[in-house]
Amino acid sequence: MSDSAQPSLSTFFDGVESPARSLVVVNRREPNAVQNLLRSAFDGQSVTVSESELPDVDDDVVIVVEDGDIVAASPLEDVMNAFLLINSDTYITGRGNAENVDVPNVLTALDDVVFDLRGYPVSNKEKLLLILISRHIEQLALQTDSGRLRSTFQRLSRFDDERGTRDVYEALAASGVDVHVYGQSGRHGQIPDEIPDVTVHTGTNADYRRSWCVVFVPERPTDDHAALVAVETGPNVWRGQWTYDADRVRDIDQYLDTNL
Length: 260
Description:
single chain, 7-stranded mixed β-sheet, about 25% strand, Uncharacterised_Vng0742h, Diguanylate Cyclase and Two-component system sensory domain-containing protein, DICT_dom
């Protein structure tokens, strides 16, 4: 069966209406360069970036606004340290405690927005947003210490190439989470050094080759759910979205279980 005849993760973007959310930097005292970095990171997206001076609000705060309401807030310093002033290597190749990834609320609160994101060298920041949300969902699974996590990696060799990624999944494997990873095996058919207590799935269809998913379903239906779905639409260009809607998360989990 051809890829076009098979079900695809791309269908999870169909009919989805992105919420109208904006990022506003309030009472900025940091240099103009910081504001320009934030604008650049969301250039071309549906999320707009602006700034404002407001009384009775701390200096250097970033807020998320939807329909005139503030839905999240974070110190600008946190956004700088986690997103604007670092690159993806911090989370991918570097060692770190997977349980201490601090993703600012104003980034995690952009759920259900559809992003079209470019990787390096075209952009240093856009793809980093997906990496941060991936770590956020993995951290949620670690903290819950139960439930099921499914992650797609395109290439399973990333577990050998990316020390930071391997550290995260070794921590997950040692927890009470049922961990499943999906990807293509190495160029000569090898599967990288296995992580104990991680279930490995291999394949070559379009979803294996072009998807980036991190999906957490807790044991208790009342606990927090989370899913990131991204599909590569061109060389190092991704259409992605994350959601905390329990029904959508379970639908994505079921899709991965059935089709990969």
